[in-house]
Specification:
Length: 176
């Protein structure tokens, strides 16, 4: 009987430890990254959220910029579109509803954000085919950057670029 109580006690301790870790305060950068992941892919499951985190990390590596610069770069992530730099704090407050998503979704976004920001362990870029761009199939037409313009016989020809992967509603591309 004592062993059974011990095992139950260990399980309860682990549950509290995991929930406490999830409730740890995020840094400003981790909050921006987590909000970007939630805003872009909260309905896409863990695979979609992981894929967006891969794009964030890939862009940080390629640009050698701070993670907040990657997330908040104009016209890159719809969750931040149309927001002036002076309004980021106000926008972050408007996005407070994202923290009220299902706890497992929010906790996963928080975990991914910590992983992206820490730089101690990289995400598996093969998961997205080393992509650095994506778009949602909710768009009526693919973005201009999903095509390359080639000139043949004096005419410009628009040719689709082959995506590296499709995950949920997101289609991923390796540009450059």
């Amino acid at each position: 009987m004592e062993r059974k109580h011990y095992i139950i006690g260990v399980i309860i301790f682990l549950l509290f430890a995991v929930s406490a870790a999830a409730d740890e305060t995020l840094t400003y950068t981790e909050r921006i990254v987590a909000l970007t992941i939630l805003g872009e892919a909260r309905g896409e499951g863990k695979a979609g959220m992981y894929a967006v985190a891969c794009i964030l990390e890939k862009r940080r590596i390629e640009s050698d910029k701070h993670m907040t610069e990657v997330c908040l770069k104009p016209k890159q992530f719809s969750i931040w579109n149309g927001i002036a730099k002076s309004q980021y704090d106000a926008q972050e407050q408007k996005l407070d509803y994202l923290w009220k998503e299902k706890p497992e979704v929010v906790n996963y976004a928080r975990w991914l954000a910590r992983k992206c920001v820490s730089r101690t362990e990289r995400l598996d870029q093969k998961f997205t085919g080393n992509a650095n761009h994506y778009y949602s199939t909710d768009r009526k037409t693919p973005p201009y950057w999903t095509f390359k313009i080639e000139e043949k016989n004096g005419k410009k020809i628009k040719t689709p670029i082959k995506p590296t992967r499709k995950i949920g509603k997101h289609i991923f591309y390796k540009l450059k």
